[in-house]
Amino acid sequence: MTTNDRRVRISVHVGEYAIPPLKDMLVLGRNSPIGCIAMRRAIELLVKTPFEHIELDDEVISDILVRQSILRRLSREELIDFVVARMKPMMGPDEVLHALVEVNVFLSSDH
């Protein structure tokens, strides 16, 4: 006589949800699935850190959302130039790219 034994095993790895899901910067494509206004509202609800909205007139990129503290070390123009030159070539207008940004500033003083 054959018996059909049914066994179910569930394994779950539980970890803390990363808040915020956005650390430094989002680059939104012109046809991205979520618009800038919706993304900004979500960020305001989830993140205490203030973010700056930079709107672009570009065929691929529509908006950049960046932590304000980054713009204390880097001008808006420098950030826009970097995003357009380095990130735009690897993204489509329907994408949203998340970026961790590291800005190193070297200071010197002549006495």
Q: Identify the strand order in the major beta sheet.
A: 2-3-1-4
| Share of residues in strands | 15-25%
Helix and strand content put the structural class at alpha+beta
Helical content band: 10-25%
Q: What general form does the structure show?
A: extended
Rg calc: 21 Å
Distance between the termini: 95 Å
- SSE pattern, N- to C-terminal: EHEEHE
* Main sheet record: 4 strands, antiparallel
The number of helices is: 2
Q: Low-confidence parts, pLDDT < 50 over ≥5 residues?
A: none
Instruction: Estimate the mean pLDDT confidence.
Output: 85
| Number of extended strands | 4
A few lines on this structure:
With 111 residues, the chain is of the alpha+beta class. The protein is 21% helix and 19% strand. It starts with 24 loop residues before the first strand and ends in a 12-residue tail after the last strand.
Question: If you had to describe this structure to a student in words, what would you say it looks like?
Answer:
This protein has 111 residues and is α+β, with helices and mostly antiparallel strands. It has helices spanning 36-46, 76-87; strands at 25-29, 51-55, 61-67, 96-99. Strands 2-3-1-4 form a 4-stranded antiparallel sheet, with helices on both faces. A hairpin with a 5-residue loop joins β2 and β3 (61-67). The mean pLDDT is 85.
